[in-house]
Design goal:
globular, 10 helices, two-stranded antiparallel sheet, mainly alpha, about 200 residues
């Protein structure tokens, strides 16, 4: 497995029991304490787990979640765990430097110039793993161009969701693909950049 790869390999059959039971069965790269911390962040409404006003409005308008208390609670928990998974699979600046065989100062320059996507969580920079190709280990093609068209204040989960959600207009081998898959397969970056600009226009 690669550096900080998010592990979800199945070791057993996790029933519908406790979080501890699920972790014991799945052996992910985060702990029960990490889950509790993420949920606490969600309840406090602080840190990077809390969506910005713009992101909250976007998801409320498009997620199809009804306002019932049970649904809201489930959505809040899912949001916290989603952010936890994103943090667990992210790389540090030093790990990115090692991965790309570059200096740490170069990685900081890449971050500042928008050639790589990162976000701060608990005082540390996180570089999501999705922006690197599993085949080459390098940043996915045209990453900087797409990032430049996305809203600059978007939540990390919004950026992650944009790149990893299949789109009906991006078809690879007859199957709807995500912007990440589209760009990795050599697809024209134009449609992805247009989608990013459309998302930004709503902010």
């Amino acid at each position: 497995m690669g550096v900080k790869e998010f592990r979800v390999a199945k070791k057993g059959t996790p029933g519908r029991g406790s979080v501890a039971d699920w972790i014991a069965a799945r052996d992910p790269s985060f702990t029960e304490a990490d889950v509790a911390e993420a949920l606490e962040d969600q309840l406090r409404g602080s840190g990077t787990v809390s969506l910005s006003v713009q992101d909250r409005a976007f998801w409320d308008a498009n997620a199809g979640i009804t306002p019932r208390a049970k649904d809201v609670a489930a959505a809040a928990a899912a949001n916290a765990v989603s952010m936890l998974a994103l943090n667990a699979s992210a790389l540090t600046a030093g790990e990115v430097a090692q991965k790309l065989n570059l200096s740490s100062s170069t990685i900081r320059h890449y971050k500042a110039s928008g050639r790589l996507h990162s976000y701060e969580h608990r005082g540390k920079l996180h570089f999501p793993l999705w922006q690197f190709s599993a085949d080459t280990g390098q940043a996915i093609p045209f990453l900087a161009d797409v990032l430049a068209s996305l809203p600059q204040n978007a939540h990390p989960q919004t950026i992650s969701g944009f790149f990893q959600t299949p789109q009906p207009d991006l078809v690879v081998d007859g199957v709807a693909s995500s912007p990440k898959q589209w760009l990795e397969s050599g697809g024209d970056p134009g449609p992805v950049i247009s989608m990013a600009a459309e998302l930004a226009s709503g902010y």
